[in-house]
Amino acid sequence: MMVWWIIAGGFLVTAVTGIPIGLGLALTGMAILHFVVGGATDLAVNAVWNVFTDFTLSAVPLFIFMGEIMLVSGVSGRLYTALSPAFMRIPGKLLHTNIAVSALFGAVSGASTSTAAAIGSVAYPELEKRGYKPSVVVGTLAAGGTLGLLIPPSLSLLIYGATQQVSIGQLFLAGLLPGLMLAVMMMLFIGFIGSRGESVVPDEGETVGLGRALRMLLPIWPIGFLIFAVLGTIYLGLATPTEAAGLGVAASIVLGFLWGELTPLRLWRAFVDSVQVFVSIGVVMLGALILAQAISILGLPLQVLSWIESMNLSPIMVLVMVSIFYLVLGCFFDGISLMLMTLPIVFPVMTGVGFDPVWLGVIITILIEIGMLTPPVGMNLYVLTGITGNRVTLLQAAYASLPFWILLLLGVVILTVFPSIALFLPRSLY
Amino acid sequence: MQSVLRWSDRLAGLLAGTAAILAIAMSLFVVLSSIMRYFVGAPFAFTEELVGLLFTAMIFAGLPVCTLRRRHISVTIVPDLMPEAMRRFIDRVAYAIVAVFCVWFGILTWEYLQITIALDARSAGSRLLLWPWTAVLPLSCLLSGLAALLRMVAPAEYLQDRTHRGAE
Amino acid sequence: GGDTARAAETEWKMHIVWVPARPEAQAYQQFAEQVTEEAGDALDIQLFSSGSLGVKDADMLRILPRGNIIQAAGLYPGYLTRDKPQYAYTLPPGVVAQPETLQEILPELRDIYEDTYDEAGIKLLGFVGHAVRDTHIMCKEPVNSLEDLRGKKLRVWEQFHVDVFQKLGVSAQIVGQNDLYVAMQTGVVDCAVYPIGLAVTVSLQEVAPYASYLFPYVLHPLNLIASRTAFDALSPEVQEIVMNAAAKAEEDSFASYLSGGNDEKALETFRASGGDLLDPFSDEDQEAFVTAARETWEELSSGGGQAAQSAYETLSQAIE
Ligand code: NA
Ligand code: NA
């Protein structure tokens, strides 16, 4: 199979020469389109143009702008200074906020990458400054981002429901408890690494009583304005999630001038710098799109699935094979396109052997979330690597995300053994 | 050589500023869209399509800067294990490959531009003229290709300004 | 891979965006299967549903003609407006008051589409009827008059309807398919123009349980097209098999469209999950809507260039 040789060769050259990953992926995809598909390289431009000009993608850079503006105006610094005492006694300290805030954010945002961008661009610089180990910060942020897709509303559950004609209301309810369960599992894990006494979290920091710690939160009330701009406007139906990202930028500017130390010059620098951050992420998106187009025009995913289908396996073995399939393909494809491509076969096969359609939606969402954390195409990792300015490299980020990757897989196992964790709410409310 | 490098750096600064202006415009139109939705009951029809086009233009305006200033995301484990001279050589090879991409993708986007002009293509909803936005792509590839060539042949001192390769 | 039972002389890849469960997909599936069976070893058509080939309908005029990547496709011509602006005004939804009219004007529509396809190097094999016949206004609260609709925030799927509803004093906005459920749940919009037949697939009744009929789902019929190069490479016998299968798919899908069978089935699902079908909009309201739609159609066509105008003249005469 020439395709696999081109992919292997492309990845090898990218790793050995250190060319930008996005361009390595793009060249690999263009080579497949040229040599295997028959001179169809123009599909590369089509794929990039169609996705880049789509409105919904713009939430990611907007959240990165918001984070940078909060950073340069000192707003996020005040936020973390106030939050810090409340978390001093808990092993893992402020790392927990990454998961908790991501879960909260996930309750209004439907996407994983936007969640990672929004929380990451605010949290990373502050936690790094405070002495938290950068790669661990990135790992928790990448993992927290995955909650954006599981806790409703969720783009993947919406698309799953719409294409497979499964109740979206039931799917949203089904995602809630597993999302919270995974959030708790992630926080327990953070507590575990925090208590092992390695240099993951900083030692210093005053410990104060709970009452005092809570009183320290009072002066940061203006941040409530920002939270309302992003979360409240979506919740009240005043804005779509993408528009809320724009309102977040506007609110952070207002807050920065009135309450922080924002100046016009700093604001300008914030835009100039964060655009460069986003461009580096956008180049990876570009490459991932071209490679995905090259693989999907060949119809490869459907061929592999037809093969799984033809083996007549037991339900559990079908689940195992489908999981492996998603884990492998998740390395190359963005989650939503992967789901769209595979559901026509995965859905009938899985429901055919007796799995519940609502449960399956949650499982597939978790499986494609794992793909967000696996290189070479793991968008959460790239967004965060970009936000750190390559200070945490892609491989360090992937390595730090590995435990969370395993936690998510463990979540799949738990939900398989106890499907009612997902199905309890939809069954009792519908 | 020195003056070429100095001028290219100025041009990069200009492009970075352009990308930032596009980013600001993008933010403005997204905010405008939600304000219109609230006060007028409906956002402007054109805002979503315009925001998508601004997004695309922003990335491609930033691409040459990213290439010249080495802000790309890359995996450099193998080159980092090499002695300094070897590493510099691999770097030059890498930029030659980047230049190949820029030429190849540049030709493809140039052809895409010509089709867009020939069809007088417009955005599906609010009929925005597309070719001026499409033209950003081949132009960006041209400039990025020049930036890659420059890094390929630039003297070693210039390449010293490497960005971080990991904080740990 | 690809160790299927046999490999035909010629294999076609066919692209559609619909998921396999949808009636549209089943019509195209029927076509592909009939050709594959009747042509024996001469031709296999493999249908890739859900857009799983990764290509968009909007690019089909550019990709299909070459014939070496994808050889056939089924699509909604309204998605070609980027490259063919006049399609925005060819047969906008709402200008026709009776669903039967759509089948009657197929010859006129064929001429219009063939102008585009012949120029691009594409062969129009035939049409496929829509899955649903009736379009409703679906709301969070009971609404079945234009009077009630004024003051509500209405979601529509295309700019044409924004203009039509503006004429009727209703403020409408376009909300994307993926945002609609949440937009309705949180109250970004109160109502949506949506056929019940399609709404149940996206669970819209869960957030907008009240529906009322406003106008028939008459718009561009779905096209079944093939690369001219690929089609010409087939033997005359196989070409005939392809054309016959296309004609059969057209006949069956239009019969199904006009019977309203899918609408009925969806209505059961709609009611079972708590949906409430109100009385239709009054005859006056329905008439006012069609009138506004035709006025908008005429205005837009006269400003849409020569192709749009001649299509308007042909079709507006044909639908009388
Ligand atoms: Na969410
Ligand atoms: Na991945």
TrEMBL record, chain A:
The keyword Metal-binding does not apply. It holds the Pfam family DctM. It comes from the Bacteria. InterPro entries: DctM (IPR010656), TRAP_DctM (IPR004681). GO terms for cellular component: plasma membrane. It is found in: Cell inner membrane. The chain crosses the membrane at residues 28-52, 59-79, 99-124, 136-160, 172-195, 216-238, 244-265, 277-304, 316-346, 358-384, 404-425. Residues 10-421 form the TRAP C4-dicarboxylate transport system permease DctM subunit domain. It is a multi-pass membrane protein. Keywords: Cell inner membrane, Cell membrane, Membrane, Transmembrane, Transmembrane helix, Transport. The keyword Cell inner membrane applies. Belongs to the TRAP transporter large permease family. This is TRAP transporter large permease protein. It comes from Lutibaculum baratangense AMV1. The lineage of its organism: Bacteria, Pseudomonadati, Pseudomonadota, Alphaproteobacteria, Hyphomicrobiales.
TrEMBL record, chain B:
It is a multi-pass membrane protein. The chain crosses the membrane at residues 12-38, 50-68, 89-110, 130-150. It is found in: Cell inner membrane. Residues 26-153 form the Tripartite ATP-independent periplasmic transporters DctQ component domain. One of its GO terms (cellular component) is plasma membrane. The keyword ATP-binding does not apply. InterPro entries: DctQ (IPR055348), TRAP_DctQ (IPR007387). GO terms for molecular function: transmembrane transporter activity. This is TRAP transporter small permease protein. It comes from Lutibaculum baratangense AMV1.
